[in-house]
């Protein structure tokens, strides 16, 4: 199988996902190194149709990429049907890449983003860097409850959602 030469901030991820998926549809979507809204909508519809063929109801993906389904007519079959549809359609591959690109289009390291967030909030000094942040994760941030209120709020927000 020939893997396209991807470029851009997610080139490695596109290459890896393209190589590892068994879905022809996912490869078709990934081939150009982008996932359009139309391609994502097609994937969502195809995934829903596949689940419906297995007797499972699907109401679509939430903005964070999560989803819920009903049980299959034989509840013991539910996980297998869902997993089979994910592999057939490539919804796991397309969905994962789509969601991380939407949240972090430049593929900035999460630790770097959290560090910048803390600096922007003014709760750490200018010049605070990723190595400081990593050290603080093991040190003063390890017990967030003991942090001063302003620092605790900023730390929890920047660590959980560093990209805003």
TrEMBL record:
It comes from the Bacteria. This is Uncharacterized protein. It comes from Myceligenerans crystallogenes.
